[in-house]
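> example.struct
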């Protein structure tokens, strides 16, 4: 393995580790890991049906200059990998009404 490949591997490993720590520190004590597990199961089921790849997305990013989203099921949604790539780490401000519905501002 040449030096460039080793560097790429190290960078990917560090990014993966940062992401794991972000999730850990963004998980509230009251967050229900069983609910997250059920969401992951639903995502796996959707992926077993066809060619479209689904992923679990944090609605509010875990790491962003303006906000810090939490790692709990209320901040997660299942979307296609294409939608997730387009969304990237962007944040659009929103309001939440009394029924819990989000409206972009």
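> example.seq
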């Amino acid at each position: 393995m040449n030096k460039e490949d080793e560097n790429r591997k190290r960078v990917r490993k560090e990014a993966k580790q940062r992401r794991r720590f972000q999730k850990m520190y963004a998980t509230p004590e009251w967050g229900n890991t069983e609910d997250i597990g059920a969401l992951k199961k639903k995502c796996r089921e959707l992926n077993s049906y066809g060619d479209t790849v689904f992923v679990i997305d944090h609605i509010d990013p875990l790491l962003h200059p303006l906000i810090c989203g939490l790692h709990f099921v209320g901040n997660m949604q299942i979307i296609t990998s294409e939608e997730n790539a387009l969304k990237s780490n962007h944040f659009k401000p929103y309001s939440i009404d009394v029924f819990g519905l989000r409206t972009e501002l």
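> remarks
Helices lie at 3-25, 33-47, 81-87.
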